[in-house]
Amino acid sequence: MSYIIACSAVSDRRAERPAVNSEPAGLKLDWSGLSAVPRYDTHFFFAARTGELSIAQPAIKSFFLDGPAGRLEALLNAGSPAATHAGLICHPHPLGGGTMHNKVVFHAMKALNSFGFPVLRFNFRGTGLSAGEHDEGRGEIADVQAALLWLQREFALPVIFAGFSFGSATGLRAACPDPDVAALISIGTPVEAEGRLYSYSFLHDCKKPKLFVSGDHDQYGPHQVLERVVAQAAGPKELVFVPGDHFFAGHLIEMRLTLESWLHEFLHGA
């Protein structure tokens, strides 16, 4: 199914430009602008969530985990002792400057962490302080597998995977067949980016719940092409377009709330 949602956010001046590693203070949502384009189904409601973002700052652990090409630099945002799931988030293309500190990755982490999940982020091989060299997506699949293994050993909880751009295209290949992964979130799913083509035929057999969320003018995942990709994937699945480009510039809050709404529905039912 495909959806397009429009909403607006209002806040005090401190929240106009949230820093990458800090929470907007006092931000609330104005739902008066919520609308759905008629040609899309409309049962997807942001209103299922509270409309107010938490400003709590959980503990963050900086460490290295063992990867197939050497140690991988990682961050773990602590979760609740009663957490039902753990989260893993993978960053965009390192040759384009992508790291685990990317703004989209940060907001995705906050979405998962808001449910009390411990959330792991890491730098792919050759990125930041991680050992090894970039491997054009091949070795990076093994990096994701190493991160999933670490989560399972540490928490023994079902995992919700989320990836942004390259992190999605690469991470989905590791997460789909992993029996410990319960659900998948693909953010800014790339189809073609700077000469790199991405194939998602493996999603035909991936029957885990999936959310695809992209900007409505994503330069690396045009509407019609992305709709075909999602149409060919096994269900259950959702495709949501929010305002913005590939990086959700000016619309990170909408993207984050889309994730939270879908997660709430996934955890508690429609």
CATH class: Alpha Beta
Structural class: alpha/beta
Provide the CATH architecture.
3-Layer(aba) Sandwich
Mean pLDDT: 83
User: Could you name the CATH homologous superfamily?
Assistant: Alpha/Beta hydrolase fold, catalytic domain
How many DSSP helices? 5
Kindly provide the radius of gyration, computed on alpha-carbon positions and rounded to a whole number of angstroms: 17 Å
Query: How many beta-strand segments?
Result: 12
Q: Within the largest sheet, what's the order of strands? A: 2-1-12-11-8-7-5-6-4-3
The CATH topology corresponds to Rossmann fold
Which residues form runs of ≥5 with pLDDT under 50? 1-55
How do the SSEs run, as a string of H and E? Answer: EEEEEHEHEHEEEEHEH
Shape: globular
Number of domains: 1
Q: In whole angstroms, how far apart are the ends?
A: 15 Å
The helicity comes to 10-25%
Structure description:
This protein has 270 residues and is α/β, with parallel strands linked by helices. The chain has one domain: 3-Layer(aba) Sandwich (Rossmann fold). It is 24% helix and 27% strand. It is built from five helices and twelve strands. The relative contact order is 0.15.
